[in-house]
Specification:
The relative contact order is 0.13. This protein is an alpha+beta fold. It has helices at about 1-30, 35-50, and strands at about 140-145, 155-160, 170-175, 185, 190, 200-205, 215-225, 230-239. The strands form two sheets. It has a five-stranded mixed β-sheet with strand order 1-8-7-3-5, with no helix packed on it. Strands 2-6-4 form a three-stranded antiparallel β-sheet, with no helix packed on it.
Length: about 240
Protein backbone atom coordinates (compact mmCIF):
# COMPACT_ATOMS: atom_id res chain seq x y z
CA UNK A 1 0.00 0.00 0.00
CA UNK A 2 2.82 2.35 0.77
CA UNK A 3 4.43 1.63 -2.69
CA UNK A 4 1.20 2.46 -4.48
CA UNK A 5 0.81 5.72 -2.63
CA UNK A 6 4.36 6.71 -3.48
CA UNK A 7 3.81 6.07 -7.21
CA UNK A 8 0.63 8.05 -7.19
CA UNK A 9 2.35 10.95 -5.51
CA UNK A 10 5.11 11.02 -8.21
CA UNK A 11 2.57 11.10 -11.02
CA UNK A 12 0.74 14.00 -9.43
CA UNK A 13 4.03 15.88 -9.05
CA UNK A 14 4.97 15.36 -12.73
CA UNK A 15 1.51 16.51 -13.84
CA UNK A 16 1.85 19.67 -11.78
CA UNK A 17 5.30 20.36 -13.29
CA UNK A 18 3.90 20.01 -16.88
CA UNK A 19 1.13 22.48 -16.05
CA UNK A 20 3.67 25.01 -14.87
CA UNK A 21 5.74 24.64 -18.10
CA UNK A 22 2.63 25.10 -20.26
CA UNK A 23 1.75 28.29 -18.43
CA UNK A 24 5.13 29.87 -19.39
CA UNK A 25 5.32 28.35 -22.91
CA UNK A 26 1.91 29.31 -24.30
CA UNK A 27 2.38 33.11 -24.05
CA UNK A 28 5.75 32.89 -25.85
CA UNK A 29 4.29 30.82 -28.68
CA UNK A 30 1.30 33.11 -28.97
CA UNK A 31 3.61 36.12 -29.14
CA UNK A 32 5.21 34.71 -32.34
CA UNK A 33 1.87 35.01 -34.18
CA UNK A 34 1.23 38.65 -33.18
CA UNK A 35 2.50 41.40 -35.57
CA UNK A 36 4.83 43.95 -34.08
CA UNK A 37 3.80 47.58 -33.81
CA UNK A 38 6.55 48.64 -36.23
CA UNK A 39 5.33 46.20 -38.90
CA UNK A 40 1.77 47.40 -38.48
CA UNK A 41 2.93 51.02 -38.86
CA UNK A 42 4.89 50.25 -42.06
CA UNK A 43 1.91 48.51 -43.62
CA UNK A 44 -0.24 51.48 -42.74
CA UNK A 45 2.21 53.93 -44.44
CA UNK A 46 2.42 51.85 -47.61
CA UNK A 47 -1.33 51.63 -47.95
CA UNK A 48 -1.68 55.41 -47.55
CA UNK A 49 0.75 56.38 -50.39
CA UNK A 50 -1.08 58.23 -53.16
CA UNK A 51 -4.26 58.46 -51.18
CA UNK A 52 -4.45 62.25 -51.51
CA UNK A 53 -2.86 62.59 -55.05
CA UNK A 54 -4.88 63.63 -58.12
CA UNK A 55 -4.02 61.12 -60.83
CA UNK A 56 -6.83 62.06 -63.17
CA UNK A 57 -4.66 64.28 -65.44
CA UNK A 58 -6.08 67.43 -66.98
CA UNK A 59 -8.74 68.24 -69.54
CA UNK A 60 -6.68 70.63 -71.77
CA UNK A 61 -7.52 70.51 -75.48
CA UNK A 62 -6.59 72.73 -78.50
CA UNK A 63 -9.07 75.50 -79.18
CA UNK A 64 -10.21 74.07 -82.51
CA UNK A 65 -10.09 70.47 -81.35
CA UNK A 66 -7.19 69.55 -83.67
CA UNK A 67 -3.80 68.16 -82.69
CA UNK A 68 -1.03 70.80 -82.69
CA UNK A 69 2.66 70.98 -81.83
CA UNK A 70 3.25 72.48 -78.43
CA UNK A 71 7.07 72.79 -78.54
CA UNK A 72 7.30 75.86 -80.81
CA UNK A 73 8.96 78.81 -79.11
CA UNK A 74 7.07 82.04 -78.64
CA UNK A 75 9.87 84.23 -80.01
CA UNK A 76 8.63 84.21 -83.63
CA UNK A 77 6.26 87.01 -84.60
CA UNK A 78 2.72 85.98 -85.52
CA UNK A 79 3.19 87.00 -89.18
CA UNK A 80 6.58 85.21 -89.50
CA UNK A 81 7.06 83.23 -92.72
CA UNK A 82 10.27 81.22 -93.19
CA UNK A 83 11.99 81.97 -96.50
CA UNK A 84 13.77 78.64 -97.00
CA UNK A 85 14.63 77.47 -100.50
CA UNK A 86 14.46 73.88 -101.67
CA UNK A 87 18.26 73.61 -101.99
CA UNK A 88 19.08 75.36 -98.71
CA UNK A 89 21.16 73.10 -96.48
CA UNK A 90 22.21 70.72 -99.24
CA UNK A 91 25.90 69.71 -99.33
CA UNK A 92 26.25 70.60 -95.65
CA UNK A 93 29.25 72.75 -94.72
CA UNK A 94 30.66 72.57 -98.27
CA UNK A 95 27.73 74.36 -99.84
CA UNK A 96 29.39 77.80 -99.65
CA UNK A 97 32.91 76.87 -100.68
CA UNK A 98 32.56 78.60 -104.08
CA UNK A 99 30.76 81.61 -102.66
CA UNK A 100 32.86 84.79 -102.76
CA UNK A 101 32.30 86.98 -99.71
CA UNK A 102 34.27 89.69 -97.99
CA UNK A 103 36.60 92.31 -99.42
CA UNK A 104 39.00 91.41 -102.20
CA UNK A 105 42.74 91.39 -101.62
CA UNK A 106 44.67 94.36 -102.99
CA UNK A 107 45.37 93.83 -106.67
CA UNK A 108 42.81 91.00 -106.96
CA UNK A 109 39.60 93.04 -107.16
CA UNK A 110 39.09 91.98 -110.78
CA UNK A 111 39.78 88.28 -110.21
CA UNK A 112 36.64 86.74 -111.68
CA UNK A 113 35.04 85.79 -114.95
CA UNK A 114 36.71 88.65 -116.81
CA UNK A 115 40.18 88.16 -115.30
CA UNK A 116 42.98 86.84 -117.51
CA UNK A 117 45.16 84.09 -116.10
CA UNK A 118 47.72 82.44 -118.33
CA UNK A 119 47.85 79.01 -116.73
CA UNK A 120 49.34 80.45 -113.56
CA UNK A 121 52.62 81.31 -115.32
CA UNK A 122 54.07 84.67 -114.32
CA UNK A 123 55.27 86.76 -117.22
CA UNK A 124 58.01 89.33 -116.85
CA UNK A 125 56.96 92.96 -117.25
CA UNK A 126 59.82 93.37 -119.74
CA UNK A 127 58.23 90.96 -122.21
CA UNK A 128 56.43 92.85 -124.99
CA UNK A 129 52.67 92.73 -124.76
CA UNK A 130 51.09 90.16 -127.05
CA UNK A 131 54.25 88.06 -127.48
CA UNK A 132 53.40 84.37 -127.68
CA UNK A 133 55.46 81.48 -126.37
CA UNK A 134 54.59 78.43 -128.43
CA UNK A 135 56.78 75.33 -127.97
CA UNK A 136 58.23 73.64 -131.03
CA UNK A 137 56.89 70.25 -132.05
CA UNK A 138 60.43 68.89 -131.65
CA UNK A 139 62.26 70.47 -128.66
CA UNK A 140 65.90 71.56 -128.90
CA UNK A 141 66.68 69.77 -125.62
CA UNK A 142 65.29 68.24 -122.48
CA UNK A 143 65.95 69.31 -118.89
CA UNK A 144 65.40 66.97 -115.94
CA UNK A 145 66.03 67.58 -112.26
CA UNK A 146 64.54 66.90 -108.84
CA UNK A 147 62.96 69.14 -106.22
CA UNK A 148 61.67 68.69 -102.68
CA UNK A 149 57.90 69.20 -102.58
CA UNK A 150 58.01 70.91 -99.19
CA UNK A 151 61.36 72.60 -99.67
CA UNK A 152 62.44 75.91 -101.12
CA UNK A 153 62.82 76.74 -104.80
CA UNK A 154 65.17 74.44 -106.72
CA UNK A 155 67.09 75.79 -109.73
CA UNK A 156 68.75 74.23 -112.75
CA UNK A 157 71.42 76.12 -114.70
CA UNK A 158 70.82 76.13 -118.44
CA UNK A 159 73.84 77.15 -120.53
CA UNK A 160 73.14 78.28 -124.11
CA UNK A 161 75.87 78.82 -126.68
CA UNK A 162 75.32 81.81 -129.00
CA UNK A 163 74.19 80.74 -132.48
CA UNK A 164 73.33 83.98 -134.31
CA UNK A 165 75.66 86.06 -136.47
CA UNK A 166 74.87 89.22 -134.50
CA UNK A 167 73.81 90.18 -131.00
CA UNK A 168 70.19 89.22 -130.37
CA UNK A 169 67.67 90.26 -127.74
CA UNK A 170 65.92 87.26 -126.20
CA UNK A 171 62.69 86.77 -124.25
CA UNK A 172 62.23 83.61 -122.21
CA UNK A 173 59.10 82.16 -120.58
CA UNK A 174 57.23 78.91 -120.10
CA UNK A 175 54.35 78.20 -122.45
CA UNK A 176 51.23 79.00 -120.39
CA UNK A 177 49.03 76.31 -121.91
CA UNK A 178 51.41 73.37 -121.38
CA UNK A 179 53.48 74.29 -118.30
CA UNK A 180 53.03 73.75 -114.58
CA UNK A 181 52.69 77.05 -112.64
CA UNK A 182 55.55 76.08 -110.30
CA UNK A 183 58.04 76.61 -113.15
CA UNK A 184 59.77 79.88 -113.98
CA UNK A 185 62.95 81.16 -115.64
CA UNK A 186 65.39 83.97 -114.85
CA UNK A 187 66.41 86.23 -116.38
CA UNK A 188 63.34 86.50 -118.60
CA UNK A 189 64.95 88.99 -120.93
CA UNK A 190 68.51 89.79 -122.03
CA UNK A 191 70.92 90.07 -124.92
CA UNK A 192 72.55 87.02 -126.41
CA UNK A 193 76.09 87.28 -127.73
CA UNK A 194 76.92 86.55 -131.36
CA UNK A 195 78.29 83.22 -132.47
CA UNK A 196 81.63 82.38 -130.84
CA UNK A 197 80.97 84.81 -127.99
CA UNK A 198 80.05 84.31 -124.35
CA UNK A 199 77.45 81.80 -123.35
CA UNK A 200 74.07 82.79 -121.99
CA UNK A 201 73.16 81.28 -118.62
CA UNK A 202 69.51 80.94 -117.53
CA UNK A 203 68.15 79.63 -114.23
CA UNK A 204 65.21 77.23 -114.59
CA UNK A 205 63.32 77.36 -111.28
CA UNK A 206 60.76 75.08 -109.67
CA UNK A 207 58.78 75.90 -106.53
CA UNK A 208 56.44 72.90 -105.95
CA UNK A 209 54.74 74.37 -102.85
CA UNK A 210 53.80 70.94 -101.56
CA UNK A 211 52.90 69.35 -104.89
CA UNK A 212 54.55 66.05 -105.70
CA UNK A 213 54.98 63.99 -108.85
CA UNK A 214 56.25 65.00 -112.27
CA UNK A 215 55.91 68.72 -112.91
CA UNK A 216 56.41 69.41 -116.61
CA UNK A 217 56.62 72.47 -118.80
CA UNK A 218 57.85 73.90 -122.12
CA UNK A 219 60.49 76.62 -121.95
CA UNK A 220 60.50 78.87 -124.99
CA UNK A 221 63.22 81.44 -125.80
CA UNK A 222 62.12 83.87 -128.50
CA UNK A 223 64.67 85.65 -130.71
CA UNK A 224 62.42 88.12 -132.55
CA UNK A 225 65.12 89.97 -134.51
CA UNK A 226 66.39 86.68 -135.93
CA UNK A 227 62.89 85.30 -136.38
CA UNK A 228 63.78 82.10 -134.51
CA UNK A 229 63.34 80.48 -131.10
CA UNK A 230 64.69 77.78 -128.83
CA UNK A 231 62.44 75.25 -127.11
CA UNK A 232 63.22 72.98 -124.15
CA UNK A 233 61.15 70.30 -122.47
CA UNK A 234 61.42 70.55 -118.67
CA UNK A 235 60.55 67.65 -116.36
CA UNK A 236 60.89 68.11 -112.59
CA UNK A 237 60.41 65.16 -110.24
CA UNK A 238 58.98 66.53 -107.01
CA UNK A 239 59.15 64.22 -103.98
Amino acid sequence: TQHINTSTHLQQKRYATMKIHQMFLLPAVAHGFVRSAAFQTSSSVILNIGKDMDLSGNDWKPEDGQMKATDVGDYFPEDYEADIGYTDGMMGSQAGMNRKTGPALPGMENLGADAIMMGGIEMSEDIPEGMEFIPASVPDGEIRFQAAASGSTTSYELVIKPMCMTFEDFFAAFAPSTSHPSLSVTPATGRMDRRGGEETVLQVNCDPRGQSGELTGDLVINLPEDGSKLSYKVVVTSF
